[in-house]
Each structure stands twice: as structure tokens, then as C-alpha cells.
What we know:
By secondary structure, this protein is an alpha/beta fold. It has helices spanning 2-5, 99-110, 116-123, 127-142, 202-210, 214-218, 229-234, and strands spanning 10-17, 23-29, 44-58, 61-73, 83-85, 151-158, 163-166, 173-177, 180-186, 192-198, 222-225, 240-243.
Amino acid sequence: xxxxxxxxxxxxxxxxxxxxxxxxxxxxxxxxxxxxxxxxxxxxxxxxxxxxxxxxxxxxxxxxxxxxxxxxxxxxxxxxxxxxxxxxxxxxxxxxxxxxxxxxxxxxxxxxxxxxxxxxxxxxxxxxxxxxxxxxxxxxxxxxxxxxxxxxxxxxxxxxxxxxxxxxxxxxxxxxxxxxxxxxxxxxxxxxxxxxxxxxxxxxxxxxxxxxxxxxxxxxxxxxxxxxxxxxxxxxxxxxxxxxxxxxxxxxxxxxxxxxxxxxxxxxxxxxxxxx
Length: 276
């Protein structure tokens, strides 16, 4: 049962099926407990506590983990901790979600192309929790340079409605989120969607291009765009602007996270949709 459940450091003591068809798994610590401050072995129980953690769904059923654990008194008089609660890698202290649930949320968005709202609903978490898991996974990768491309696609995509708010100084209404985004796509390679920025002005496009390494820009031979002045003005010098045949540039076969693919960061997901 412990091996099947797959959480390191705990053992399963009971499993219950709830009236809503979800599953509650009761676990206890199954490793030697030591003080995290001084590594003194735990010997005196201060109190018993219960942790409730949500886990990744299995077989279409939601899983809740109830962890019966202890808070221990540290017997080392020189240790500043005083007391501590049991913690294992797969069930961190104060966490309401298992790490594998966060990973599942992130992969469902980045690898499967599902929306944050859909993933949050299927995993039983809030929109913000699913989004935070996604960005924590892809942001470190997106901080680096994409692989070289020879044929770059630039196209706009409309997402929902613009978001407006009153300026606190003037009282006038101003736009805080554009309904248009611009995507950058590897048209001839395997990377698919390279990035996405808010807005579709020349400044929005050039801001993304200026973040790229000069050698990366120099490797671009053609750029496929809608032949609008904003995009034409942003095309890097030395490349050939090529009109798009029709519609948005397809994102390609990416969304995989391996040595040859960049995970996709849907920047439109970073602003929670305000419309239905």
C-alpha cells in the first residue's frame, strides 16, 4: 500500500471513501525524526497534530491526505528551536498541497495546453494556486534564451476583454490589461511558441526582440507577419518580412519539456480573465 501510494517518508494506516466519492488517505511518519536545528533525535512528544493536504487526483477521484504527526520538544538545551513538527520531503511543513499536485497542475498547463481555469477545476485547487504552480515551473526556463530560429512568426491574438481601472490620481479610466497579445513562433523548427507579450504595438514587439541575443537575431532569415505598419516597423533589419497566408500563426507541435522543446508560457494566463 505504501509503495502504491508513493509518498516517501510516510506509511498508510487507513483509507476511506467519502460520500462525495473522494478518497481520504490517513498516514503516519515512517522515518527517523530529528530536530531540523541541531539534528538531535526526537525523544519527547510535545503534542499531537493533524495535517490535511490535498493530493493529485487518481482515477478521476480527488485525494485528501490526513497526516497524523507529532510536535516534538528538542532536548538539546543549546538549540534555539525548542520544538519542531515532523516534516518529510513529499509533505513539507505548512504546505496544504503535495509537491506532486503542484507539478501536475504545472504540467497540465504547460505540456497539455489546458487553461489554468480548467486545470484548477480538475485538480480541486484555486485558479491562483494552479497559476502559481505553472509560473514557478516555466519562468526559470523562459528566463533563458530560446534556441536559434531561422523563420520567425509574429502574430496577434485576442484574449477576452480589456481591463480598465480608475486612475487614483486623476480619476480617469485607464487600461491596465490589453485584450490583444502578440506571439512569437518558431515556424521551421520544433520549439513552437517562443514567447507572448501583452499588446500589439511596435514597442510591444520590439521590447521582446530587444531581449534576445544579437547572435540569435542575426540567425533569422524570414519573419512571417500580418503586413500591418506596427509589425513591419518591428521586423529586425536584415530579415525578409513575409506576409502570413491567413489567420494566426500556429503554435506548432511543442508544449513538451525535454532537451529539444521549450515549455510554453501562455502569458495571457498571467492576468486572470475578467470576462466569462
